[in-house]
Structure formats: C-alpha cells, structure tokens
Write a structure and sequence with these properties.
Two copies of one chain form a homodimer.
Chain A (H helix, E strand, L loop, with lengths): L1 H11 L5 E2 L11 H12 L15 H15 L8 E4 L1 H13 L5 E5 L5 H8 L3 E5 L9 H7 L4 E7 L11 H18 L4 E5 L22 E6 L12 E5 L6 H14 L7 H7 L9 H18 L11 E2 L8 H10 L2 E2 L1 E2 L9 E4 L4 H17 L4
Parallel strand pairs in A: 1-10, 3-4, 3-5, 5-6, 6-7
Antiparallel strand pairs in A: 2-8, 7-8, 9-12, 11-12
Helix pairs in contact in A: 2-9, 4-5, 4-8, 10-12
C-alpha cells in the first residue's frame, strides 16, 4: 500500500492523492522524545550502541515494568519484560516460542492481516472467528471453536481496523471462558493482547488491562503509535508476573529474539524510551480527526460504528464487493483498504492519522461515491 | 555468553574478569557517526521516524548501491538493495525467501553457530563441511556434497571465528564449481556471502567481492562492526544486479522483511548510515590488538593460524576436549568459547575486540593454562 500510494502521488501529484490507506501516523513524536534524544546524543553513554542482553537493557525493562505496574495495579519486574522490534517483532517471538506444528491460534475478524503470516511462520493454524455488529468477539462462537489444539487467542483492542475497544466486562468473561476451556481440555491457552493502540483511546474511556483477568496473558505492543515511532521498531513483550510458565516463556522469548535474527530491540531507542513510558502523543488531536471524518461520512450516509480508539474507522461498503468500492474511491483519488484484507468483506478501512488537509481533501471523493450509490 | 559474563563480573568484580567471549566491539562508533547523528537530531527531517517502504529509504539504498559499485566495479542500483535489521535479520529474510521445506544449505566449519537456527527457522537442512588446516573451504568436499536439493552455500569471510579471509582465487573457483553443479542438476544455487566483517581486514589485504565471480550471489552484512553499531540492528541485503531471479528475489525479500515482523530496518539509523558508507572504525587499532594477543599466545606455545580479518582468533585447544579447556581458562577468569560451538571441536575462540586492559589482564590466565598443559 505504501508503494501504491507513492506511485499514484507521482502520477497525480502529491496534493491530489488522499491516502487513507496506511497507519503511518502523521504526527511527529512528542516534544519529550526530541528532548530525550537530543540529551542522549549530546551526552552519550559509553557503549550505548553496543550489544546488550538479548532481552534488552535492564534499566529499560525496569522502566516498562514500573509503568505497567502503575497502569494495571499488578507488580511487574524487569523479568516479565522483553524489549522487541515493534509489535510485529514481539508477536513473531511470542508465536515462535509457544507454537508447535499444527497448533491453533484464534483471532477475531476484522483482524490485522499480518497475524495470518506471523502464525504461519511458526507452523500454527489461524482460526478466524466472527464478531458481533459492534465488532466485539462472540464468546459463544469462541467456546465452540476452542479445541485441544488451541494454543492461543489473539485480541487487539483498540482494534485495527474497527477502532473498537473491548470492555472490562468482555475481557473478564473471556478470561473465565479460557480458564474453563483450559481445565476442560487439560491444556494451556495463552491470551495474547496486541496493545499497539492502547494509549490512543477516546471519549474519556479507561483501558481495561487483560492482566487483571487472566494469568496466562502476554501483552505485545510498541511505541509506534503512542510515541509516533513506527519506523524505529521499538516495542516490548510483557507477560503476567504470575503466569504459570514464566521462566520457560522468558527463556523462549530470549532464545527466539536471538534466533529469529532480531538479536535485540534497537539500542538507541531503548535508551530513549526508558524515560518516556508516561508520554503519549496528543490523543485529543486524533479524536478531533475522528470526529471530523466520522461526522462527515455519517452525514453523507455511510454506515459505521463510531471508533473508540486507534486511528481507523471501518464503514460498511456501499457495494457488496468492497474491493470494487475501494477501486471506486481510488478513482476519486481517495485510497482506503478493502475489508476482506482484514477478514471482513463488505467493509472498508479508513485511516485518519493523516494531516487535516488530506482528510478535508478526501471528502469530495467520499461524497461523489456516496451520491453514486445513493447513500442519502 | 553475555549473561554469563555479567554474572561472573558481579561475582569476581568487573576488573577481575577478562571476557573474550563475545564480539561486542569495544570501540565507540567513528566520530563521523556522532557528527551525523547530532546533525540529524538538531535538524530533524519531517517524518523521519515514520514507516517507509519495507525495503528501506530509497536514498539510503541508493547510497549503499553507490558504495558497492565503487568497491566492486559492478553497477548496483537501489533496486538491488534491501535494508535489514543487521546481518541476522538479513539472513533470515534471505533464507525465508529462497528455502523450501527440506532444501539444503551448505556451510563450512568453523561457522557462526546461529546459521543452524536461521536455516532451521525456514525449513532448511544445514550441511556442515570441513575446511582445510588454514580454515579454507575444501572444494572437493563441496563438489561431493552438493545435491539436487542444495539451494544455497553460505560463506563468511573474514570468518567468525577463525579470522580467515578467502582469496580471490578461491572465490573464483567456488563460483566455477557452483555454475558447474547448477547446470549438472538443472537447479539454482545461491551463494550467500556474510560480509559482516568485510571492512575489518589486516596486513594491507584487499577484499575480493563475490559479485565479480558469481551471478547468483547475495551479500548480507551490517554496520555492526564497521561502524561499531551492533545494538542498533542496521544492515542490508545486496543481490547481484544480473542475478537471473532478481525481481522474484526482491519481491521475496520485501515480503519476508514485512511478514517476519521486521517491517523495516530502524528508520533513524537508515538516515544516519546514508552518508557514512565510506566510513569505518580504526582497523589499525584492531590490528594492533591482534598483533599483541597473537604474539603473546604464540610465544606461550598456543598453536593457531594468524587471523587476517574480523576480530577473533581460533587457536587449537591444548586439551582434546575444548569445553574442558575453556572451563580451565574460566578458572583463571578468562572467558572464551569452545570450538564445538562453531562446529569445530578441538579449538577455542578468542574475541579481541576488547579494551587493552582486558587483553593484558587475560595473559596471566592464558599463561597459567599454557604451563599447566606444557605448551612450551
């Protein structure tokens, strides 16, 4: 998608393409980031670009643990944390650690399309379950889908692409269900929570951490969105301090970080994010963008659930064929992604982490498509 | 090894442990690196921490291509280059791209032990061949070992752990042999050249690039050693511009960079190394360290080939059991690595990319072990 946008921009002129197809945050990192980076570069630590332990700098892992303790009320230590090359790196390390050939991993559509590749990389089988009309996992479907081969369930809240945020009650019931199925089959099921968008959450909502509801939970996340550093590949894996397989998991995460060739999360960024665990980009600005685009699209007749987090919305496609509709929008120079890329045909994803000019410029195309298909 | 060294340093005191076990360069990056990093941080490019194309910034790939053109006399373009998360990342991407289940990959012992894990990650089978008494690949053994299932041969010159540098003549004959076997079996065999130590080369030797001798060659390397940035995970894949599968390979490298969860090489480092392609740490300093340690060890009676590159030496173990000998040295607080970790029992690896105090301090332990086993 990145490449496609670049080609169309060359063809039509940068200002005539309204690229809402990728989650590449337009915001620069917060000022605290620039200050911390400058401070480090002007006062370099000896050896600050060298190898460190594969799990990452103890000081950085301790800082992540302290912040998680604060957010969850559960006591984390550096021994529960492995620094990772972004959420993509973290997920590959976790999946390689826990999966045996043929193990099942359950995800809920719509879901981030790379999960399928990541699971496949390590011999697992993806099992895609539906969500309800508000994009919430259906627990009865989950109950029916879990088998003795189920090794993990991946959730992603705030969700890419729907923007849905799971409630504490849902997570609690999910935890209960997983415990029940664990004891029914005599297996262990890991709850992998992809929290890349944890800090991008609107309307005063409070994020309900999975850790309070399930011991076998593993969080994977990054500073790609909260510090606007997607290109820097800095994130982490955090496991529940009371997870029953804590030491084996830690050993596995470290081994797989090494042998998958990551070796370690980038050193300089580990130094920088150490003191920025409490910092986040301006969420209010993303909320403003959401309100602007949501308001306009709904007014034009598009039908969608109002996103509560992340920086995507996932309207219903006015055409049954979402690819055809995305092609239609492309004719008006508006780039979006068909829902089938997320396992949910009949929808399309709009990314609004772009500058206001792009958002404003996209409205004409959305409007023409709405008129063409008689949305209002 | 990193963790073991840290534990012993806590136990015996930092200054009483002579850790020659890891390739973590003691040198700080060259002054040009610090200047370039400072320049960028003080004059940030807009969006310089955002996602870019998975292959990396076009400007950085063009800079790498220009430097390679200069070094090899062959015309590279950015379309022959994919930026990678270090050599470990580069190798995983290449192997995932080219390997089918059960394909054979040939390496020559002694070899970097992670090759086995990397090949195994992607369904390949490692085939380890011996080298001669100077650690040079034996081409007759290679000729006998290649089968219709052979997909690649990995070479690593300057070699970790032996410090051996392959001659242009050897590489030429290797290329001839691979071409012959390709046409004999009607297959394609890739020559993967791990050149992490390409710039660390002594005695006025000139590095013979593989590209001049074999079209199906792929170079994987990093700036971990030449710019002393091992923790930053910045390197690249370069393929021969006339490789017959160029477009398929490029597509595969990009896909695998994405789906293995690397996504892209760290952004800031891509910006920094763009203008540093011609810069290298002080090789003279490493040569001084080599001369110092080599001279002393040989005088004590240790037997070894004088390394011509990288920053390791690989002496014969005075005990047949190299693990027992490494344990012996550890009793004198000198940390090294048994040769069997590199597929070559009966040797041990000494890493001399450490400060002079550590090198000097290690001599007493080497001396006591030499005396105990009557080396002189």
């Amino acid at each position: 998608m990145f490449e496609e946008g670049a080609i169309l921009k060359r063809r039509w002129g940068e200002e005539n393409v309204f690229d809402l197809s990728i989650g590449n945050p337009v915001m620069e990192p917060p000022v605290e980031f620039s200050q911390e980076l400058k401070r480090l570069v002007e006062n370099p630590l000896p050896g600050m670009h060298r190898y460190m332990e594969n799990a990452g700098y103890p000081e950085t892992r301790a800082a992540v643990a302290a912040q998680l303790s604060l957010e969850t009320g559960i006591k984390f230590s550096m021994n529960d944390i492995v620094m990772a090359c972004g959420t993509g790196g973290a997920l590959n390390v976790v999946l390689k650690t826990i999966l045996n050939q043929g193990d099942e991993v359950i995800v809920f559509a719509p879901y981030f399309m790379e999960y399928g590749n990541y699971i496949d990389n390590h011999g697992g089988c993806i099992k895609v379950l539906p969500t309800d009309e508000r994009f919430m996992p259906k627990l009865d479907a989950l109950e029916a889908a879990i088998t003795a081969k189920t090794k993990a369930v991946i959730i992603n809240s705030p969700n890419n692409p729907s923007g849905a945020v799971y409630s504490e009650d849902l997570i609690h019931r999910l935890g209960e269900l997983l415990r029940k199925k664990e004891s029914q089959y005599g297996i262990q099921i890991f709850l992998i929570s992809d929290e890349a968008y944890r800090k991008i959450i609107y309307d005063g909502l409070k994020y309900p951490p999975v850790f309070g509801h399930y011991l076998q939970s593993i969080v994977v996340t990054s500073h790609s969105k909260d510090l606007a550093l997607p290109g820097e590949r800095i994130g982490y894996i955090a496991m529940h301090p009371n997870c029953s397989l804590r030491e084996e998991l830690m050993g596995g995460f470290i081994f797989c970080t090494r042998t998958l060739g990551y070796v370690n999360a980038p050193a300089l960024m580990q130094h920088v994010v150490r003191n920025l665990q409490h910092v986040t980009v301006s969420v209010a600005e993303y909320q403003k963008k959401r309100d602007f685009l949501y308001g306009h699209l709904v007014e034009m007749g598009y039908s969608m659930i109002k996103p509560q987090g992340a920086f995507y919305m996932f309207p219903k496609s006015p055409l049954e064929d979402d690819v055809a509709f995305v092609n239609e929008l492309r004719q008006w120079h508006v780039l979006t992604v068909p829902g089938r890329g997320f396992g949910s045909p009949g929808y399309f994803r709009v990314s609004y982490c772009v500058d206001d000019k792009t958002l404003e410029g996209s409205l004409a195309g959305f409007k023409r498509a709405a008129q063409k298909f008689n949305l209002c």
